[in-house]
Structures are given as structure tokens and as C-alpha cells.
Amino acid sequence: MIADIEELSSAEAIERVVEFMSTLPTENGWNSFQPLRLYEGFWTFPHFLESIILAQHRFKPKPGDIFLCSAPKSGTTWLKALSFAIVTRNLYDTSNSPLLTKGPHHCVPNMVGFEYKPDVRQPGIPLIPTHAPYHCLPKSVLGSDDVKVVYICRDPKDAFVSMFHFAANRRPKENEHIAIEEAFELFCLGRSVFGPAWDHILGYWKASQERPEKVMFLKYEELMNDSELYVKKLAEFIGYPFSFEEEQGGVVKKLIDLCSFENLSNLDVNKTGKRHEDDDEATNKTFFIKGKVGDWQNHLTPEMANRLDNIVEQKLSGTGLSFELNNGSS
Ligand code: PAP
């Protein structure tokens, strides 16, 4: 438990957090060069954790802030693009949106590094993305009625497969990648980035049930299946509803098309650009792989799928939440 870092200087607070993190349980995740730390029931990389703990204690929200939350590989890039397009639609039209020349992760930078780069929040863009579990959001945000939280989740089988490929792409080329069976075993034990995946999902699900006016819960699969319905709901929830005239004029459809996998993944910036100017590893194209529901079927055996389905089903049992298990077409 870390306390009293609210009033320290940034440098002192960082030092205290780094010291605290060194006391946390540590295990290898999918590779030995990036160990995972266990904090408040979740495994994650130290560089994510440092920002999360600092923000937990020190982040000061502004009224109207909107947190865009997700477990990794569950639709973050898509949610960023859609939310950015929604809140900036009076500034740009779909032919000159910054999304066309910068990647979604550049238009809406992550909360990672927040303490070091206070300017990371673009003026007039109230969107703050994070992979933090619900209970690890900034205390100020949990206690505020003025901040909205949108969460997107995805069938853990597809999120796992997406993460497996992402990690393979990002590993140093001299390192052999973990076998999918081994990575899957760790995922099923909950030892993955921001795992256990089901606990991440459940934290936001319960919050959305308790405070539906504050927390919106989206599923990647539903957004894919009926984009128009869910994009309208999203815009309304975050306080930028579409007018009747906009709906009649096809604005919703245009934003959906702008943010579609097909459109974004074919832009030059997302084929060859970098997520951040100073980031040599995360090229934008690593965030656009297939963009499909059910790709797990090409990578998991039926036994693996059943095993993960059973774990998830058991964990979600009685909560009112479920995924279309074993059905790649939903
Ligand atoms: P992140 O957590 O690292 O930010 P995130 O964007 O959540 O990643 O997930 C990436 C997945 O979303 C990829 O899925 P795949 O590996 O199964 O293909 C990526 O292709 C998909 N994705 C990215 N952009 C979009 C989009 N506009 N529409 C639908 N899916 C998308």
C-alpha cells in the first residue's frame, strides 16, 4: 500500500512509487525481458504500473473528462478513433480529420507517461485512455460525478490471440517468441498483461451496473455487429449526441466509415507511421492486424477454446454478463 504521495514533488513521488513497486510480487510473463508485477490483484509491466499508481493518487480530472478504458487488444484503437471523431466532428470533417494523417494512438495519447508529459492531453480533447482496471483508476475519477468512463471488452479468446501476435511482433528479433500453448497456459492462470482478463472485464461490468450514468460498457463484437446503434449510444453517453439533422445527413455513417478497420488500416500513417515520434518499436501497423470477430478459430484448438470459455463462463456466472461462447460469428 502506498500513501501520502499526493503532495510530493513529481520527482519524489516517482521515486517513492518505483521503490514501492520493487516490493511487489514479480513473475515472468510471456518473455523474460519484461517481467510482470502484481498490484491490487492485477499483473502488468512496471512502466504501465508506475503511471497508474501516480495517476491513482495525483491525477486531477477536469469536468467533462472522458476515460476510455480497455484491457489490451480489446478495441482500444477503435474506441479511440471513434471517440476522437465524435468529439471533434465540429472542428473537422471526414476529409480533413487528423485521424487521416496521425494514428488513433497519436490523436489520443495514452495516460502512460502522464506525470512526465502533462501536455499529453490535447487542448479541447477530453479523452483519456487507460488499460487500468476499474478499481485502479485515479481516486479522483472514482469519486467524481463529472467524469465519464467508457469501457470496451472483447471475447478473451480473440483478445488473447491478438495479444499473442502483437507480442511476437514487438519482441527483440534475437529473442525466440513463447509458444502459443505456453502463453495460453499463463493467460488461463491470469498471468498476462492486465490479467486476469475476466477480473478486468468484471470490474467495469459491475461498475456499469451500479453507476450506469457514469460507466458505459461496450463489447467489440456488438460494436462490430451494429456500429450505428452503438456509436450513437457512445456519442450520447459522452455528451456529444448526434442531432436529428446529423443523423439524417449520414454523419454517423461517415464517422463509422472513417474509423473502420478497412479505412484506417489502409492509410499511409497506419501502414508506416509510429505511434509516438520517439517510439521506435510500436509502429502503427502493429495495432491493425485483422480486425475480425472470431479469429481465435484460426489459432486455438477446440480444447483450448473450451478451456478458456469454461473459465470465463464460470467467472462471469451470475453477473448477467456473457460472451457468445464458441461462436466465432457473433
Ligand atoms: P491496444 O490495446 O494495444 O491499444 P487494441 O486496439 O485494443 O490494442 O486491439 C488491437 C485489435 O483491434 C487488433 O485486433 P486483431 O489482432 O484481432 O486484428 C486490431 O486489428 C483491432 N482493430 C484496430 N483498429 C480497429 C478498427 N478500427 N476496427 C476494428 N478493429 C480494430
Automatic annotation (TrEMBL):
EC no.? 2.8.2.-
Keywords assigned by UniProt?
Answer: Transferase
Please state every residue range assigned to the domain named Sulfotransferase. 64-320
The UniProt record lists the keyword Transferase: yes
- Keyword Signal present in the record's keywords: the answer is no
Record-linked InterPro entries = P-loop_NTPase, Sulfotransferase_dom
GO molecular function, a single term: sulfotransferase activity
Name of the top EC class for this enzyme: transferase
- This protein's source sits in the domain of life called Eukaryota
Similarity remark: Belongs to the sulfotransferase 1 family.
Kindly provide the name given to this protein in its UniProt entry: Sulfotransferase
Q: What taxonomic lineage is listed for the species of origin?
A: Eukaryota, Viridiplantae, Streptophyta, Embryophyta, Tracheophyta
